[in-house]
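Check out a protein:
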Amino acid sequence: MIKYGAVILSLLWSLTSMSNAADAVPTLTGEKPVIIAHRGASGYRPEHTLASYKLAIEMGADYIEPDLVMTKDGVMVARHDRYLGTTTDVADHPEFADRRREDSRTGRDRHEGLEWFVEDFTLAEIKTLRARQVWDSRPKQFDGKFEIPTFEEILELVQQVKTATGRTVGIYPETKAPGYFKSIGLDFEAPLLAMLKKYGYDSAEDKIFIQSFEPEILESLNQKTGMKLIMLLWPDDMKVMVPNYDLDYVAAFADGIGPLKFMLLNEQGQDNGLVKQAHALGLEVHPYTFRNDQLPEQFATPQAEYEHYFRMGVDGLFSDFSDTALAVRDRLY
């Protein structure tokens, strides 16, 4: 009886310790990590559509993420990148057949092969296109049903939710290829700041993060706004997974980092200390991208992957399936 009693007490102590560990949220601020709806509820609807954002909001996502690109006439619209062939029905529009061309950019971000690029289309022309699901394994019944939204339409959606429910949904815009757009006379900075100011965003207290893979625009924005800025990180070498920018450098102008999620793990799949390094510099950590249907081999379930990262102390994460991420977070905390 003594032996079994000791085992039971040991189990109870272990469970209590796990509960206490979960109660002590290991984020930078001690607050629950935020769930960022990556391109909206893109696991269920075509990405970067109002329908995708609406569903993510209904699921309870803390933030919705629009990737921003610019049309020929200087309007910010939501697409993952400049190219339109994979995410819209542009190929079905014979009137745009002659717009297909090679990418004029060079380097790592160059799109190989012929494509249609957003900067070759006016907003009126973009509005004739309809969105498509990118992933073949995801629902296709919504293809062709939804327009490409402008950034202002997305901000209007967030305002409508606040008016109707009193809930403030965060916005997490990314400036896509800002250096390239600036080089062709479509600079993000002024229209982005003007649009955000119009909808009441201008300080660190506002529920917004502005993100980019290019430090130049964030360094400039840091001089012009108090809104929180996130430096997105990518490994120069996919085998080593070392951040392409030094954290001390990033801390001089940004409030956090958005690393590829694998950059937070060592070769054994365990915490490599990058989260703690970032926190020591006052940087939040928001890794990307978590996908239920693209699960790394080391995790048996999406829930196990989310829990692994939450226990490492990430301050938020980007997910195509916000409902799953929220369920795990709210179970832990």
Observations:
- The chain is about 35% helix and 10% strand.
- The chain has one domain: 29-82+147-332.
- The domain at 29-82+147-332 is CATH 3.20.20.190 (TIM Barrel).
